[in-house]
């Protein structure tokens, strides 16, 4: 599986893509992440992780301003992503930044839980 072959998801209700920008891999998600995209999102996040590691990026930035909904199953994939980083040696770990939409209540609550889980790793803007 080529890392660049899984750099986007496009369905009627959800889209995601990522690209390398300087010392970061930036991920954009928009729409509604639900069971219709769960398996694709899992594969996509694995590709993001591989890209960060392969490029030795220092940070994965998630642009979530247009992500209007994420169900608990898809949110658990973000936790899985963070757990993967926590499982690395300290010298191999990279930071995760979530750029959120303050008008979406679910983001505030859910991202705060991810931040509390991995305080030294996760930043929320």
In short:
Helix content is 37%, strand content 34%. It has 125 residues and is an alpha/beta fold.
List its salient traits.
single chain; 125 residues; alpha/beta; Transcription Regulator spoIIAA; six-stranded mixed beta sheet; 6 strands; 37% helix
Layout of secondary structure:
Elements: E1 8-11, E2 14-21, E3 24-33, H1 38-55, E4 59-70, H2 72-86, E5 95-99, H3 105-117, E6 122-124
How does this structure look, described?
By secondary structure, the protein is an alpha/beta fold. The protein has a single domain (about 5-125), classed as 2-Layer Sandwich (Transcription Regulator spoIIAA), CATH 3.30.750. It has helices at about 40-55, 70-85, 105-115, and strands spanning about 10, 15-20, 25-35, 60-70, 95-100, 120-125. Helix 1 packs parallel to helix 2. It starts with 7 loop residues before the first strand and ends with a strand.
Number of helices: 3
For the record, give the distance between the C-alpha atoms at the N and C termini, rounded to a whole number.
32 Å
Largest β-sheet summary: 6 strands, mixed
How would you state the average pLDDT, rounded? 94
How many strands?
6
Predict the CATH topology.
Transcription Regulator spoIIAA
CATH architecture: 2-Layer Sandwich
Apparent shape: globular
